[in-house]
Specification:
Elements lengths: L1 H8 L5 H87 L2 H9 L27 H4 L13
Helix pairs in contact: 1-2
InterPro entries: Cappuccino
Keywords: Signal
Protein name: Breast carcinoma-amplified sequence 4
Length: 156
């Protein structure tokens, strides 16, 4: 518009009119860039509100769900430690029983009466039979009931 006024009043284009036209084009370009920038900031605001209103509640729900999973894992770790303790205890008892009741060769000798092979005879006197008391056993169902939420087969 400014250029049109310059042409109407000035018959001859002057260097000032060219500078005004260049300045006007630069201002229009800057206004276009400002509009693009405002659109970008509005998109960021809408994305932020979407994150705050929709995504964060979903993340909170997943965190609560994962806390239940972590609790199950903690229970399972405690159970595995208890079973490992029982296994090591029973292993010690088996080793003691093997020591007190003789080795495998002694058992074979007793089966075959060691009559023909004198080297297998035991130089120790026969041991007195010891009674064995079973340790207190546990049931897996006591720790992980079959109707436990999140099990693979809840109805079994």
């Amino acid at each position: 518009m400014w250029l049109l006024l310059c042409h109407l009043f000035l018959w001859k284009p002057s260097p000032l009119a060219a500078k005004v036209a260049a300045l006007e084009e630069a201002v229009e370009e800057l206004l276009g860039q400002l509009e693009a920038f405002c659109g970008l900031t509005e998109a960021i605001r809408s994305d932020t509100s979407e994150i705050l209103e929709e995504t964060i509640p979903l993340i909170k729900d997943k965190v609560l769900e994962m806390n239940h999973v972590y609790a199950k894992i903690d229970k399972l770790e405690a159970f595995v430690k208890m079973v490992a303790h029982h296994v090591s205890f029973l292993e010690e008892q088996v080793l003691e029983a093997e020591k007190s009741h003789g080795t495998f060769l002694n058992a074979v000798c007793k089966l075959f009466q060691c009559a023909t092979i004198p080297s297998f005879k035991n130089s120790r006197p026969p041991s007195v039979a010891h009674s064995y008391d079973l340790p207190k056993l546990y049931r897996t169902e006591d720790y992980f009931p079959m109707n436990y939420v999140g099990t693979k087969y809840p109805n079994h």
